[in-house]
Amino acid sequence: MTKTFLKLPLYCAMFGLGSMVNTTHAEDTNAEPALEKQLVTATRTTEGLASLPYTVQIIDQDEITRQATTGQELGGILGQLVPGLGAGDNSVSNYYQSLRGRGILVLIDGIAQRSNRGVSRQLSTISPSNIERIEIISGATAIYGAGATGGVINIITKKASQDGLTFHSELGLTMSTEDRDSENQSYKLAQDVAGKFGKFDFLAGISLEQRGNYVDSDGDRIATDPNQLARDNTDTVDFILNGGYQISDTRKISAGLQYFDEEMDTDAAADFGEPSAAYLGLPLGVVGKSGDYEPQSIDGLKLNQQPATKRQSFTLDFTEENFFGQTLIAQASYREQDLYFYPYLGAPLFIQTDWAQAASFIGQGASTTAAIFGSSAAGSTITQSRIETTTLDFKVALDSKIEIDGKDLGLTYGIDYIQDKGNQTSIEYNYNEYIASGQTTLNKTGTVVNAGPETETTTQAAFLQAQFAPVEALTLRAGLRYETIHVEVDDFVSGDDVLNAAFYNSQLEDTNLQTLAGLNGMTTNQFLDYVTDLEAGALGGVGSYLKYSDTVSTREGGSKDFDATLFNAGAVYDLNKAQQVYISFGQGFTVPDITRLLRNVSVFTDNASSEPVLESNNIDAIKTNSWDFGWRGQFDSLELSAAGFFNRSDKSIYFNASTGEAELLDQEEEIWGFEGLVNAYLTDNINTGATYSYTRGKTRSEGSGWVSLPAERVSPQKITAHLGYQMPGIFNTRLQALHLSDYKEAHREGNSATTVPFVGYTTFDLLTSFELPKGTLGIAIRNLTNKEYQHLYNQVRGYPSTGVSSDLPAQGRTLSMNYSIDY
């Protein structure tokens, strides 16, 4: 693999920086804004932080830029800065980043990025270079509808902020310190142009990234991850265009466009393991772990359609600040996504028998069973998932004030309408060619099958929020949201059934098999069914994926309606001008990924049931009740906050690591925890800070009672800390640490064979920037001590009976250089 188009301009720029360091640029030091001056837009309208009875965090552009200097992805940046959020893992997915043990709803400019196919790539589909700030509201909320059972992350893209024409340019280079080969380097080029001219403003920004190999702490190339997908060896384009026109003093129309395209470009194949004799030649990654097997990078991948993420969105906003004495906010958006995954081995399994050889063995006196097993090898299927979604989103909100006894009652009310269509297919590749090539050659067979039904979801909702301050020190809030979700599921044919039936029908045509069936007094179908049952028993636990079926049936889809009335209430009390206490209750509502739940519906799971799939499978909405109570204070040189939380639901989603199936369980879940944050400015030059989060949870199992939730659900105890030193106008430096504690409660209390005993780790980063006569040079070292460890995701997926191909180490130490200039 050769990557060149970003290298030349980056090298030229980096070599020209050495003589440019001086002491001219001043920097803001410790003037933290007062609580009432911090504005939040993640609540449907712009409000001051001081009025919100929630745990709220705002991350500004300077902090995003500083963290991005390390080459860290957005999920990793947020994992470092947000106490209750799980740590990042360098994958394209944020599936394992729960917030307070629940799912997050990601917004971009107020538009929810959810779809009815719950693929968690929201945090990897926008570059940090295109972000102005990020707002996080922790705890279940229905402000934006279904999905926010853990909280909301609102990403606000850059807009024009200065009169006239302005430019921002950025160049970046990241390399491994353990192997500095050019193939292990990553490059970044970003450019903004913005303008404000009278009533018109615009900003266009583009970010280009080319990532090389990821290298571990021993200097070895990390193998390709075929599961959640790491971002090594990817090419990324992220383009945004935001514009606005001030129609009058009270009216403004704005539009936003984003185009995101990321595709893997690697010559390294994923490693599913050596064939296992115990499982008739299946690769270990299909059937389970064997000893201390470690996936290796395999050169020579031949795959035309590599994993990719493509996303396009268009948003239109209209604001009228004097709509019959109210503020009208209307928003419409359209979004499409097209996602490809890495081809993956999976169900169904087959036993490929040489029937001529089996007949010969029988003719030599061997028993039928011995002859068949002696002439057989196990086979699998290898398919690539593709997901396509389209989403239409329309919102209208009115913000008004009514005077009551000289005090304002604030009301925000409106309606939401969302239409979401999703479809997932599986593209089959030639399994025998793939195995014969040593897992490197992937040629399509021409077969494309369903991976679950095509699904359309229509959401309609009405909401009302009220705010009132009966006395100056007390602010009360309460609200209601009524939401209906209508789901239409098309009739579909199970992809597993199609692949399974095609194999057995090809076997039925074998004349040697037909002869053996007759000798045993059976029809060919009966004999093949009998033999398949014998082979399934010999394969033990994975035998459930081996089932004779030579027919394919169409499963009836149908429709299902969900509705919920969701309530929230809270209060904020000012202890004094610098301190507040708050308490709140909120309800969240989510409909699980129906296509994912139905993806595994096949002859293996329902014996070709004739019932509509929405009736024959456990599918229901999940409602979460959440309580939040906390304290926050902001003083001249000190910022402090602390919060406790508790949330509860009567259902849970369980991912069965052994089967790869998602299941909705009718069992209660309770999650609780504590978060704390401190930032201190010790002198004009020295600052420090830390965050702490503790999350635990239990679920009530019929067989075991209350047992602890696994580490992938409740993030292990997390501590972050930093110490910074700055000389205004010259440089600033920051040493930061992230620590995750061991978490083994779920392993001890639950199913130890499938629940990982998480092993914690501590990493350090060093971030430094220098002010130049023109521009800023940033130098960062990530994983400063070259710590050898595994992210949570890799430990979960690599333990112990599935996903061995993801049992991969984290990156070792990296060095990053970044130059940026505003002009």
TrEMBL record:
Main subcellular localisation: membrane
Domain TonB-dependent receptor plug, residue spans: 51-152
Compartments where found: Cell outer membrane
A GO term, aspect molecular function: siderophore uptake transmembrane transporter activity
BP GO terms, sorted: siderophore transmembrane transport
Domain TonB-dependent receptor-like beta-barrel: 293-784
SUPFAM superfamilies reported in the protein's UniProt record: Porins
Record flagged with keyword Transport: yes
Key words, A-Z: Cell outer membrane, Membrane, Receptor, Signal, TonB box, Transmembrane, Transmembrane beta strand, Transport
InterPro entries cross-referenced by the UniProt entry: Beta-barrel_TonB (IPR000531), Beta-barrel_TonB_sf (IPR036942), Plug_dom (IPR012910), Plug_dom_sf (IPR037066), TonB-dep_rcpt-like (IPR039426)
Transmembrane among keywords: yes
Origin: domain of life: Bacteria
Membrane topology per record: Multi-pass membrane protein
Signal sequence, start to end: 1-26
Gene3D superfamilies: TonB-dependent receptor, beta-barrel domain (2.40.170.20), TonB-dependent receptor, plug domain (2.170.130.10)
Record GO cellular component, one term: cell outer membrane
Protein family (similarity comment): Belongs to the TonB-dependent receptor family.
Protein name: TonB-dependent receptor probable
Organism of provenance: Oleispira antarctica RB-8
